[in-house]
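Researcher: Let's continue the batch. This sequence belongs to ABC-2 type transport system ATP-binding protein, and it's 328 residues. Same format as the previous ones, please.
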Amino acid sequence: MVPLDGYPGRYPAAIGFSNVEGMIQVEQLTKSYGGKTVVDDVTFRVEPGSVTGFLGPNGAGKTTTMRMLLGLERPDSGRALIGGRRYAEHRAPIREVGVLLDARAAHPNRSARDHLRIIARTHGISNRRVDEMIGLAGLESVAKKRAGTFSLGMGQRLGIAVALLGDPRALIFDEPVNGLDPEGVSWIRSLTRSLAAEGRAVLISSHLMAEMALTADRVIVLGRGAILADESMADVVSGAGRVRARTTRAVELADLVRRAGAEVLQLDASTLEITGLTAETIAETARTNNILLIELATVQVSLEDAFFELTHGSVEFRQTTTTSEDPQ
Ligand SMILES: Nc1ncnc2c1ncn2[C@@H]1O[C@H](COP(=O)(O)OP(=O)(O)OP(=O)(O)O)[C@@H](O)[C@H]1O
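Model: Same format as before. Here are the structure tokens for ABC-2 type transport system ATP-binding protein:
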């Protein structure tokens, strides 16, 4: 991405960052509304140089957490910091954190370009930067149109252009792919990846699991306000250490690995699913006993499956299967 005028050489500078610069930090954050705790002692970090997916069922507390990071809600206890400071403590927050919370934030009667220019002017940012961001967001052909006529996807693009205007080190995007067409979804993916590659910290909430699996390096899962997982994407989809082995001597191999402490599920005459031993140990056991392996692979699960497994006890709004034709 093009650095902001007057900020030459700030990126790529992940290595040069002091340890909290650009970092998004939440420490023991708690918030209740009307006696209901919606964010419950939440602690996590989003490091510069990474995209962190912020996942959770409806009502899990993702937006409330993001709003506390942006000083829009006051925590009951705990701290929400960007670059080591509360949002309100930054002299120029637009240069610290880029935010996409509400795609409909632009004044409906103002053109996209004017909306950006007004924000730019109040923050000492040049019109050239505005034009660059219009180009980056793919809004050139509609820059003079009223924002009120924009589709949801165009509104999202305008919101992203605003978020990037100040060349911030941290980015917080709430459901950025909402309303975008496939080309827009893929644009957000490559944009967030390149923002992270430039050394920025990116926190991005989404319900689109397949997309998150392609975009995020880390995953934080919230359920009923509490952290259910904070792991690398690779760990989340690693299938909890399960290894699938195929051999013509499945019963013998099952017996051997069980004796080595593994749990074994026989899937069919030749296929075993083994938990508790690495693929390497299983291969070694098979070789020592002259058992030919036809296939050996660690099991990967989809992010969606991993998400359902993590959150099944924390879903607040679950539809019933009753239809109007069912007897009452
Ligand atoms: N201003 C408010 N007053 C009262 N309750 C609120 C307020 N804001 C949020 N809540 C409640 O807090 C809970 C968490 O909401 P939040 O919007 O943070 O969840 P979310 O994880 O972002 O959900 P979604 O995926 O549906 O956007 C919900 O039960 C919501 O109704």
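Researcher: Any comment?
Model: The longest strand covers residues 36-46.
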